[in-house]
Structure formats: C-alpha cells, structure tokens
Amino acid sequence: MKYLLFTIVFCFSVYSPVNAQRLEDTKESKEHAVEYGAVSIGTTIVKKEKLDLVQERITYVKNKYAEQKIALKMAIKEGEETVLKAKSKIALAKANLEADKQKNRISESVYIARKERLEMIEQKTKALEGTLMKN
User: Fold this and answer.
1) What is the pLDDT of residue 28?
2) Cα–Cα dist 100/122, whole Å
3) Which H or E run contains 39?
4) Are 38 and 47 in contact (CB under 8 A)?
5) Across the chain, what does the average pLDDT equal?
6) What whole-number distance in Å separates Cα of residue 67 and Cα of residue 81?
7) How confident is the model at residue 133 (pLDDT cuts 50, 70, 90)?
8) Radius of gyration, alpha carbons of the chain
9) What percent of the chain is predicted at pLDDT more than 90?
10) For residue 62, is pLDDT > 70?
11) What DSSP line would sit under 4-33, residue for residue?
C-alpha cells in the first residue's frame, strides 16, 4: 500500500509541473506570435509579412484600376471628337457631291458609288457613336 501511495504521489508530482509548463508554453507562443505581428486564425498563423504583400497587391490593383478608368475616359473623349469630325466631313462631302452632280461634273455611276460610300461611312460613324454612348 505504501508503494501504491508513493507511486500515485510521485506520478502526480511529476505530471503537474509538466502540464503547467505546457500551458505556459502555449501562452508564451501566442504572446510571441502577437508580438511579432502574426495573427492566429483558427489553427493557421498568418505572418505580418504576408499581410504587407497583400496590402501592396491591393494598392497595385487600385492604382491599375484608376489608370484604366482614366485611359477609358480619354479614349471616349477622343472617340467623340472623331465622331464630330467625321460628321462634319461627311456633311461637307455630301454637299460637294450634290454640287458636282448639279453641275454635271461627274457621271451617274460615279455619283452612285460615292454616295453609297458616304452612306457606309455614315453608318460606321453612327455605330461608333452608339458604342461611345453605351460606355
């Protein structure tokens, strides 16, 4: 009986400090992780370095988006200017074509060919204008 009691006391005295030491180690490791910038998520630890890389990537994407937005606005503005120039040139070409037809400077076949070409250009201009309006 003495041996049994002695064995129980011995085991209890040996295992108690070991368990206490294990608890201290987990507390220290969490404090160490927080101190050095690691964030504990469940069982995964994400280091601060990785978070910095993520922040850099987010900043890069935001800047790239802003640049693309500016480029798109400039492209739309240039497209609108092109449409206005094309419309004025088409109107001028139609007027000249009609004047040439009235003065019999061009034949009927040339008149029809040029008129069809001007109409095709006008349709393309309207299509470009429609695309610009959608954006």
Assistant:
1) 55
2) 20
3) strand 39-41
4) yes
5) 77
6) 21
7) confident
8) 41
9) 40
10) yes
11) HHHHHHHHHHHHHHHHHHHHHHHHHHHHHH
Beta carbons within 8 Å of 48's beta carbon, 6+ residues apart: 36, 37, 38, 39
Max CA-CA distance within the chain? Answer: 135
CB-based contact 48:37 (threshold 8 Å):
yes
Residue recorded with tokens 């088409």: 90
Task: Give, in order, the Cα–Cα distances in Å from 67 to each of 52, 63, 78.
Answer: 23, 6, 16
Six token digits for residue 107: 């034949």
Sign of torsion, CA 17 22 27 29? positive
Are 123 and 87 in contact by the 8 Å Cβ rule? The answer is no
- In sequence order, what are the beta bridge partners of 44? 41
pLDDT in tens, 63-104: 999 999 999 899 889 989 999 999 999 999 999 999 999 998
Tokens representing 83? 């449409």
